[in-house]
Amino acid sequence: MTQSLPYLRETASQTAGPYVHIGLAPKAAGFDLTGSQLGDVIAEPGVQGERITIEGIVQDGTGAPVKDVLIEIWQADASGHYHQNPDPATGFRGWGRCVPAFEDGIFRFETIKPGAVVLPGGEEMAPHLCLWLVARGINTGLHTRLYFGDEAVANGNDPVLNLIEQAHRRNTLIAKASGSSYRFDIVLQGPDETVFFDV
Predict the structure, then answer these.
(1) CB count, 10 Å around CB of 11?
(2) Are 73 and 43 in contact (CB under 8 A)?
(3) Residue 113 CB neighbour total at 10 angstroms
(4) Cβ contacts of residue 12 below 8 Å, gap of 6+?
């Protein structure tokens, strides 16, 4: 006699909110719970490379700023190398975390421009940043990339960007340059939705 197993239902999912600021970036919410935390400075002054600022807004489907979102960035150094175990003494963390300002919804990172990353087969990826977002209403963290608007030739040859067939969709990953600052708005829904990757 065979015994049948009971039907198992999928565990319900849950979003990251509504306390993203407190749980993941407590200092931004006014709580000093740990004494130190990763922040929006990925590369301290003095780290080799071109110093840049990244700023932007995360927008919902209506164009309104999403303020309860956590943004993480990973990046290579100026030579195009990722640091598996970054040494804080060097001043280069290789990744950072921030939440937008409550007042205007703008997020900001201080870092250096990464170099081109060479893949194992010798192919080069254009300088880029990897981003991960979690927020209330998002069941699974969203992965995307930021490419630099003043790297047109490298962007044109990038193997990941070239996987995106429509040019207007590729443009959602390009940050606009203004001197040493780059503007990168992330759109969660709608016709101008940012390209997100299934990783």
Answers:
(1) 6
(2) no
(3) 21
(4) none
Please state, in angstroms and rounded to a whole number, the distance separating the CA atoms of residues 134 and 158: 26
Give the C-alpha separation, 102 to 73, whole Å: 20
Going from the C-alpha of 101 to that of each of 69, 96, 109, 197, the distances in angstroms are 10, 16, 12, 26
pTM, two decimals, is 0.85
* Residue 139: Cβ-neighbour burial (10 angstroms; 0-12, 13-18, 19+): exposed
pLDDT of the chain, 199 residues: tens digit per residue: 566 667 778 777 666 655 666 666 677 667 776 665 658 999 999 999 999 999 999 999 899 999 889 999 999 999 999 988 877 788 999 999 998 988 899 999 999 999 999 999 999 999 999 999 998 777 789 999 999 999 999 999 999 999 999 989 999 999 999 999 999 999 999 999 999 999 7
In a 3-state reduction of DSSP, which class is residue 28? helix
Which residue matches tokens 């040493």? 180
Residue 38's alpha-carbon distances to 28, 35, 88, 115, 192, in angstroms, are: 11, 11, 11, 22, 31
**To the nearest 5 percent, what fractions of the chain are helix, strand and coil?**
15, 30, 55
